[in-house]
Amino acid sequence: MNGLADYTLALSKYVLIIVSIALLLRCIRSLLSDRFEPEIWGYLTRDGESYPLTHWENLIGRSLSADVRIVSPGVSRTHAVLRRGGNGRWRVYDLYSKGGVWIKKERAGEEGLSVESGSVINFGGEKLRFRAVTPEKREKLDAKRTVAGYGVSPAGTMFMLTLFQLTLLLQHALTPRQENLPAVALAFLALMALDWSCYFFMRFLNRSGFEIETLAFYLTSIGMSVAASSVPNDMLKQLLLTIAAVVLFALTGWWLRDLERTMSARSTVVMGSIALIFANILFSDAVLGARNWLTIGGLSIQPSELVKVGYIYVGASTLDRLFRRNNLSTFITFSAFCVGSLALIGDFGTALIFFVTFLVISYLRSGSFATVLLAITGAAMAAFLAVSIRPYVARRFVTWGHVWEDVYGAGFQQTRAMSAAAAGGLYGKGAGAGWLKDIVAANTDMVFAMVCEEQGLIIGVIMVAAMLVLALFAVRSARHGRSAYYSIAACAAMSMLLAQLAMNVFGSLDILPFTGVTFPFVSRGGTSLLSCWMLMAFIKSADNRRDASFAVRAASQDSDAEEDLSDWEVWQPREK
Predict the structure, then answer these.
(1) What was the pLDDT predicted at 480?
(2) Residue 109 structural domain
(3) Partner of 303 for a Cys bridge, out of 184, 253, 280, 473, CB 3.0 to 4.6 A?
């Protein structure tokens, strides 16, 4: 019997690798291989030429980066912005141009001018007529675009995900040391039901793109296996947190759908984030030198994980950048408060993640390297001060690169992590069969090494690759995003997750200083899982493929695609 179990376990390792690679390749093909097909929301026309408006905020000017390029001496490089509101109404804003922006005899000021379909807009002497695309026309135009996931069956990818989860469960069943197997089995079966429930819910909403959720569920499944190995008696709690995370993902996506509502709530989000940070400072418990845990009714949470979502929400509120000069002061103040507070409670790993995200948002909002360099200089000075006044932070830097010199002291965790990862080889020992799980913080700060020990280096690399695929997709979508808010939010969310990923993987392997941050979706930690799924909602909202995003309603499937849609071919602006 033992021989059969050993044979089955060995076979399951190959199944996990093959299914993981196939699942990842299918998501890559669907997310990254399709050519860009623009959404058209309106037109500017003159002298028989048509300039399609493919964003909700369209930059107009002589610059090569302008969405609508008008080559004329009277037009400034960045002359104006024509913006579509969440209610479908348009306004034009003057970007401090020399020639001004006029509709009839009224000049656009700081608050802009309302633009109706058929209005003639004067940009520094160049007159263009605006024509809005009606919802019916937009549906017909959208029907000509390729459906998200075309050529790669989302249901087929979901079956692969289910096979991956069943194989993980099989490995846990074959592990002699596995405790509380009924609870583990129930958690995995419920996770599979959650996967398919989410899939059918999206299909009910006419959404065909499910790759982002699939990759998140893939990583979450590995996180479920980590919990089953290290804390099998907490599987019910892990399952409930996973369900809550997916529900919050859907609710966040629904909220982001209305951009006007999203923008109007940013002050409330700022105040809520500040309240969480103050509660953290005043009432938190110290864990391993950092006071970043808050206990409420017997439940421990990390407020900083929830503040991550609020930080992206506020930082991406960039529409004022298009219309006003003083655009970064509030965000810089909020950022300084967040980073400073995290440093005060000793959570320097999360503070660094916030700072990296701040640099990304600052550049995307200002387009200025000088702003970024100034921020880096200030951060370097603050880091030097932190190392000077926080001895345990300095010790981490002293230990960096020298962990093998003190394997029973400062290098205890990292030396064990590297030994366990090496012991797992390419294929791993099997779920629950490793020993690293018995080391403090193995299932959180050193989870990459724990996965490498149990599932092998190949699965560990695929985990990292899944995050990189999401990052590439976020950047690719941002280039053609329908709104600056969604584009910046997606890039900022992925920069935050990638910084977290790099610090977890490289920190546990002593390539970077050990900072004690979690691996997104995989590390055990309820608040971290909630924040990761909510950050996925920003990436989902930036998806501009047909029938994929939260941000727009799915096009009607019964629209008359045979109508003359010659405007679809005219999407590249032409110079006069």
Answers:
(1) 79
(2) 42-132
(3) 280
Please state, in angstroms and rounded to a whole number, the distance separating the CA atoms of residues 395 and 384. 13
User: Same domain for 112 and 166?
Assistant: no
Locate 552 and state its tokens: 């727009």
Task: Give the phi and the psi of residue 231 in degrees, each rounded to 5.
Answer: -135, 65
- Model pTM score: 0.88
Distance from C-alpha of 323 to C-alpha of 109, rounded to nearest angstrom: 10
70-98: b or e for each residue (b if 16 or more CB lie within 10 Å)? beeebbbebbbbbbbebeeebbbbbbebe
pLDDT at 565 (0 to 100)? 37
CB-neighbour burial class of residue 557 (10 A; exposed 0-12, middle 13-18, buried 19+): exposed
Decide if 30 is inside a domain.
Answer: no
Rounded to a whole number of angstroms, the CA Rg of the chain reads: 26
* Residue 22 counted as domain residue: no
The tokens for 285 are: 């418990």
Q: Is 113 helix (H, G, I), strand (E, B) or coil?
A: strand
Series of mean pLDDT values for 10-residue runs along the chain (576 residues): 78 94 92 78 87 88 86 87 83 86 84 87 89 80 75 88 95 83 93 94 85 94 93 91 94 88 86 87 66 68 87 78 55 80 77 83 66 57 49 59 73 84 90 86 88 94 95 86 87 93 88 83 89 94 83 51 37 38
Domain count, the chain: 2
- Residues 443 and 439: their CA atoms lie apart, in Å, by 9
Q: Nearest to residue 548, comparing CAs of 83, 142, 56, 84?
A: 142
Question: Which domain CATH number covers 119?
Answer: 2.60.200.20
Of the candidates 356, 248, 348, the residue with the CA atom closest to the CA atom of residue 306: 248
Looking at residue 111, its pLDDT comes to: 78
Looking at residue 373, its pLDDT comes to 60
Picking from 56, 67, 92, the residue whose alpha carbon sits closest to that of residue 549 is: 56
Q: Give the contacts of 467 (CB within 8 A, at least 6 positions apart).
A: 219, 497, 498, 501, 520
Helices (H) and strands (E) in the chain, counts: 18, 14
Distance CA 502, CA 508 (A): 10
Say if CB 291 and CB 280 are below 8 A apart: yes
Task: In whole angstroms, give the CA distance from residue 94 to residue 114.
Answer: 12
Do 107 and 209 share a domain, yes or no? no
Which pLDDT value is given to residue 562?
A: 33
Is 291 domain-assigned? Answer: yes
What pLDDT does residue 432 have?
A: 86
Is residue 25 in a domain?
A: no
Tokens of 375: 């921020």
Distance between CA atoms of residues 48 and 138, nearest Å: 21
Q: Which two tokens stand for residue 2?
A: 């033992």
Structure tokens at 283: 């009432």
Three-state DSSP state, 407? coil
Q: Which two tokens stand for residue 185?
A: 């089995």
Residues 166 and 277 in one domain: yes
